[in-house]
Amino acid sequence: MLMVVMSGLLSSCRQSKDDEALALNLKAQQCFRRMDFDNARALHEKAMRITDNELLRFGCEVGLMAVYERTSQNREFFDARNKAESHIRRIEEEMDGLTDEEKRRFYISKDIYHYVSSNYFHNQYQDTLSQREARLISPNFKLGDVATHDTIYYHEILDRLINARIAFEQEDYTQSIALCDSALQAINRHHLKYYPADSQHLLHLYSEQDSVSTEKIWLDNPDVHTVPEVLAQIREQASMSYAAMGLTKESYYNRNAYLDILDVIRQDKEWESRYDELNEANQRVTMIFISAIVLVVVIVLICLVANEKWKKRNERRVENLRLTLELCHKIAVNVSDDVSSGRELLDTVTEAVQSDFRKIFGFGFVLDVPGIDDEDDDAMPRWSELNMRLVGSVCVSSDKKSLLRVIEKYFRWVLQSGADVLAISNNQRKTEAEKYIHEQHIAANKRQNLDKRACMSMVNGITPYLDRAINEVNKLQRNESDDVKRTRYQYIIELIDKINEYNDIMASWVQLRKGEVSLNIDSFALQPLFSILSKARTNYAQKDITLTVSMTPAIVKADKALTLFMINTLAENARKYTPAGGHIEVYAEEADDYVEVSVKDSGIGISEEDCRKIIEEKVYDSSTIGIRKDADNTELSKNKGHGFGLMNCRGIIEKYKKTNPLFAVCQFGVESTLGKGSRFFFRLPKGVKKALMLAVVMILSAPSFAKVSNDSVWKAKDSLLRKASAYADTVYFCNVKGLHTDAIYYSSLAMRELNKYYRKYHKNSPDTMSVDGNADRAEIKWWNEGFDTDYHVILDVRNETAIAALVLKEWNCYNANNQAYTKMYKMLGQDTNLAEYCRKAQNKNTNTTIAMWLVFIAVLVALFSYYLLYFRHKVIYTLNLRQLLSINNTVMKTLVQHANVQDADYEQVAKNVVDSITYELNDLLPIHGFGLAIADSETNTLYYSITQEVVESELMKELMRRAYDTREVVVSQSGYLRCFPLFVPQDNTKCVGIFSIIYSTKHPGKGDEFLVSLLVNFMSTILAQSVIRISQRFRDLEMLEDEKRRAQHEENMLHIQNMVMDNCLSAIKHETMYYPSRIRIMAENGAEASEIKEIIQYYKEVFGILCQCASRQLEQVLFKRTTVSVADVFASARKSFARMQKKAECSLTLSMAEPTDATIITDKHLIAYLVENLLQEAFAFVRDGEVELTAQKTGTGFVRFGFTDKRRRFDEKYLNEMFYPSMNGEKINLEYLLCKQIIRDHDEYTGIRGCRIDAEPCAGGGFTVSFVLPEARS
């Protein structure tokens, strides 16, 4: 009904804007009574927009004050209050012109103004201001005139809150809780009525799910308005009631909500931003006025001097353009390939053009490049961020700034190009260093491999002795005399002794070389190895097998090459035994301390017995693995190998276990089900990335850093305040642990320290803090006196004391501390400057608006004058330079795209350049077309590209060809067409292309000619740098990287083979050495021939399987045939001798005959190893003396080397047996066995038979080891 009446009133008042505003004001008051704050504010603001009546606007501002006071919007309250004060002053000035009714309304509104202000200051605990406003209220003022007391919802809420307090005082706590809940539900109904979209956020007396109180959510939302002060009182009363009932969680919940409300509505909420905003506004206004004055002065000066200045400047422009062209050319010329660092490159270019730069601009420059002086080798200078810093310049004209931008751009690109070449050179050096490391590893691995091959040759020498023993055993089974049998038994014993001797030599050899084959342990990611395996999917697809390699983030700690070998071996094994249509899956699973790599297939599977053999037995017959008696095994037998791959994988895992306790988690295993498939897996320890380890260390060390920082702040405090703060923390933790009585005690101790600190400066003052007492607390007096202490500690103590008293139901203590806390909190949040700030903000807006209009008009006048007198000409010149700069950028981007291409399509490159700059060049110059030709210096061919608007394209091509042949600028007979050679900056005789252009006039202006010269110069430089120079460097780098990858592959291959050979030889040593001793005992005891035969045959089978496994590793040829001069061999021998001499126990002299000019066919690593072995054997004999190395051609296509040791004499028998394995109670001649193996490899892999090695006595004393190698024929 009321809404209908108001709507009718609004319609009837449309005759006058004032009447309409009055109706809106009345309607806003009605909305306020219903707590519809949003509509009340909107209606008040609308009323002020439609009327200029000061009285009505004053009433609207007072209404807004009431809205803002009720919703605790502090800044908005003072905005409205300041405007209301302005209206009061204006109305009082015109008081005589008001009617009696208007005066009555004014006095009522003024009383309401003072009443609302007094109520606001009272809520903020600003008692002085509140009392002052109350005294200004008229004695005839009636509370019924105030709209706030007619609020329906507000009365309902307050009534329930008051009844809840009464029930609490009567100790009816349940009723008090119910009334608080009823008050909250009334607020919820108000919220749902005006904010139905926010129905999910409603008030509850207690909710465990709320991590943030609903009140805080409402108050943080600028679109939601409620009654925060009443909510705070309800929450405080509910907290007390719950505490009285012993419900601690519910009490804490409401207490925290109460504190949240106090924090949000504090008066200084916007303290942090508004002063900076005000200062910035003042500075902005000041700058605007200063700018206006400066613009006026500039306009006058421009009008006086612009015309004469332009004439002189135009002449200087042309000259500066010419000098700039020469400077840019000189920059490119001084970029050398010989620099070794970015700093050297920068300094070289800077020093070369510094004098020319000063000639143009009158001052010097310094080029700054971020990262140019970084000591980190991996850090690259950021050339794209190059900055030209001027030295000694006072003022730089805009014309010179334009030139500086062109030069700076040229500097940036030229230095970037030089840096690219430098980076490629650095990459080449880095790649060469990596290649060198790989080659050194290859040399070491080749030596180890040769040791294994020589040892394997000796092991293979055991087989003939076994065959002879079997033959003798077969003869023992004949019907012969006892003497003959004893002779045969004796011969068998001799054969076994020889085998034992070989075994002893092998054992000694393995012991001597123990540890030389080392594992390259490192932490690495498995994913790159899986990626390598996934590239072999084609091989599996050919057999109709699906290979799935799962992604993995796992990092392991192992030998990377051996890990790849095991993965490939298991995958290849699965491919062999998986039928068509099958599936193979490779994946890795991470555990706490290891990573398990699995190869799972859907093949035929193997039995549990076969799995046991593979895992437990070191030697087994692989031909029986997977064979089923009830199935056709024909196809399986075709695919079967020798089982050495699985043996080697298991051997590698065993070697890991013996290396370090870290590898105790290593394991090799098999899981299989017949007919369903198998899973082969191995485990490796987890690795950790170095970056991750560094991060962990930094995280672990962070607390110590924080502790240092806290200590530094702690020590800065007064000792008494420090103790008080510590006691305050103790009070908090006591409340957290439920020790509320202790909390009261420690709060008294904290107050005692604060009192001591106060009395330290006020010795006779009785104002001290206590746990309980009246609300007029001592700290309030301290605050009013301006005493400087830690009021935040006081707040903490009061709050925690109130919480403890609340739980302990000590209501007097609670009320005293809670009132003290609330009052102190609001006093700390007071902002006495807020009103003044709002007034200044309003004045600032008015002044800024006026100043902006003045400056805007002044700027318009200045810009118009500047454009007419000066700027129009300057813009044309500047735009030309910018257009040229844009063309240069376009050419640069287009050509850079082809810099990394090894065989660039020059015709396509020329077409791309022409197409990319056609529009911009036509816009820059008055032309009728242009063309570009790129030259291939190897074939002397030009690749043309000409724009479509050129009619005589053949003539242009002919003139471009002539310009390329003559290396000169060619002009057509008409004078319009001109062809410019594009020279390499360092060499004006080397032309990389031709640029042709057709002018629209026969005599183009000087400015146009210089623009074309700049373009030609830039284009020639970037074409030479990008397409020719850098492309060639990239090709060289690519070839070098291919060589490095080849060396790395060869290194890994050698490393794997050495590891596998080491496992095989170790297996032969451990699995076969006890058989000869057993056979010898049986022969000595005259055992039956059949028994001896059975043992020898089994021994031979086991020995043969293991030897076959090892021999398969030697099938791959590692001999790298090359040509080496004899002089290089002698030089290598001299270095090796000098190195050994430093550690020798005797003094040897090495004499070498003048080396022949012959060149031999050899492996450079093996020939160096051969000479080192001879020298090492010589140093092993400790006696001073002389050794000699000679070389001479034989005349039959060979070169004979001789190594003579004059200190020792040996008979011919010893020298003949020197290259065969023998113990004889002395040391083993391993060096000579290795030399024999090296010569044997030369004889086999060079393709030239006749390589030999022998030893013979020397006529003058001593002996000579001679070896013959093939001569390289020219």
Give an overview in words.
The chain is of the alpha+beta class and 1274 residues long. Among the domains are: 10-150, Alpha Horseshoe (Serine Threonine Protein Phosphatase 5, Tetratricopeptide repeat), CATH 1.25.40.10; 153-271, no CATH class; 555-685, Histidine kinase-like ATPase, C-terminal domain (Heat Shock Protein 90), CATH 3.30.565; 881-1045, Beta-Lactamase; 1119-1270, Histidine kinase-like ATPase, C-terminal domain (Heat Shock Protein 90, 2-Layer Sandwich). The strands form 6 sheets. Strands 4-6-7-9-8 form a 5-stranded mixed sheet. A 5-stranded antiparallel sheet has the order 11-10-14-13-12, with helices on both faces. A hairpin with a 3-residue loop joins strand 6 and strand 7. Helix 36 runs parallel beside helix 37 (1164-1180). The longest helix is centred in the last third of the chain and has 67 residues, at 1006-1072. The N and C termini lie far apart (122 Å).
What brief labels describe this structure?
flat, alpha+beta, 1274 residues, Heat Shock Protein 90, Serine Threonine Protein Phosphatase 5, Tetratricopeptide repeat, five-stranded mixed sheet
Determine the structural class based on helices, strands and strand pairing: alpha+beta
Unreliable stretches covering 5 or more consecutive residues: 1-15, 145-150, 268-273, 690-717
Number of strands: 21
Q: Report how far apart the termini are.
A: 122 Å
CATH fold descriptor of the domain at 881-1045? Beta-Lactamase
The portion of residues assigned to helices is 55-70%
Principal-axis shape equals flat
Q: Taking Cα atoms only, what radius of gyration do you get, to the nearest Å?
A: 50 Å
Major sheet characteristics: 5 strands, mixed
